[in-house]
């Protein structure tokens, strides 16, 4: 599991504590020794506990991780422990707490989709899009990976995905012509084509698309495309748009090999209980 760098974490700290903690400074308690614990208030798949620990360390506290990202824990499970001056603990408390709560909400949602899909099709892949809240993409990517999903596209620079919006610039023969051009100019990349209906999907497959991304197809229509392509077609079918934990099993039963979803990014945070006391 990758780590978010200190520069990004310092930006989170500066946003919340631009000139120190006024309340702690005004009370004159900053140099007193304290301890902090964080525990899960309900079952969750944990994400970004490493970054929460690092936030506290960057502020001068000693901190230790109890549950790494990707671990599913019950209510009451210890997530992290920290010790240090009250100034450091109180300055980092809310940044670290909210980070785990928000990221664990994403991870828990992703895990629910993965569990539902894999119960029907154990080899299926759940891929989360790049539709994270702007400015949170790296943390969001870590959270979905903690939930057992994969990253659909980290950004426009790493994959080839041909949209109708690209084809609008290519004239009547854009589909076949642009697929051929992408094969020629990006020979080390799979050519993924987003399609809007069955006929377009079959035309893209015939023209050499290696992955068909079926946008907002109901499960029955995904199954119809898979059946029409037949078992000998060497490519993969990705069902995209509207996939969530409630319908993931139905989509997995269609024969699609990939489920593409943005649902985890809108999941509610998981509640974390914080306790701070004198050491």
UniProtKB/TrEMBL annotation:
Protein's UniProt keywords contain NADP: no
Domain Quinolinate phosphoribosyl transferase C-terminal: 106-274
Keywords, ordered alphabetically: Glycosyltransferase, Transferase
Top-rank taxon, per record: Bacteria
UniProt xrefs under Gene3D superfamilies: Aldolase class I (3.20.20.70), Quinolinate phosphoribosyl transferase, N-terminal domain (3.90.1170.20)
One Pfam assignment: QRPTase_N
SUPFAM superfamilies, sorted: Nicotinate/Quinolinate PRTase C-terminal domain-like, Nicotinate/Quinolinate PRTase N-terminal domain-like
Sequence ranges assigned to domain Quinolinate phosphoribosyl transferase N-terminal in this UniProt record: 21-104
UniProt similarity note: Belongs to the NadC/ModD family.
Protein name: Putative pyrophosphorylase ModD
Gene: modD
């Amino acid at each position: 599991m990758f780590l978010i760098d200190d520069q990004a974490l310092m930006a989170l700290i500066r946003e919340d504590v631009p000139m120190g903690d006024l309340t702690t400074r005004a009370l004159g308690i900053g140099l007193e020794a304290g301890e902090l614990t964080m525990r899960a208030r309900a079952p969750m798949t944990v994400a970004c506990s490493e970054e929460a620990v690092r936030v506290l360390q960057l502020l001068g506290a000693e901190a230790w991780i109890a549950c790494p990202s990707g671990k599913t824990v019950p209510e009451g499970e210890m997530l992290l422990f920290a010790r240090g001056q009250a100034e450091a603990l109180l300055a980092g408390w809310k940044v670290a707490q909210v980070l785990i709560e928000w990221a664990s909400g994403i991870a828990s949602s992703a895990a629910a989709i993965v569990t539902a899909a894999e119960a029907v099709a154990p080899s299926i892949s759940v891929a989360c899009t790049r539709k994270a809240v702007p400015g949170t993409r790296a943390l969001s990517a870590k959270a979905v990976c903690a939930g057992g999903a994969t990253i659909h596209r980290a950004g426009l620079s790493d994959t080839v995905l041909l949209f109708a919006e690209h084809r609008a610039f290519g004239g009547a023969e854009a589909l076949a012509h642009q697929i051929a051009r992408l094969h020629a100019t990006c020979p080390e990349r799979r050519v993924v084509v987003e399609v809007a209906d069955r006929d377009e999907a079959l035309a893209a497959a015939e023209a050499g698309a290696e992955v068909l991304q079926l946008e907002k197809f109901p499960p029955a229509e995904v199954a119809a495309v898979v059946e029409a392509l037949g078992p000998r077609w060497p490519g993969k079918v990705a069902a995209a748009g509207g996939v969530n934990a409630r319908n993931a099993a139905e989509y997995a039963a269609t024969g699609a090999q990939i489920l593409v979803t943005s649902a985890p990014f809108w999941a509610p945070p998981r509640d974390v209980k914080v306790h701070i006391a004198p050491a």
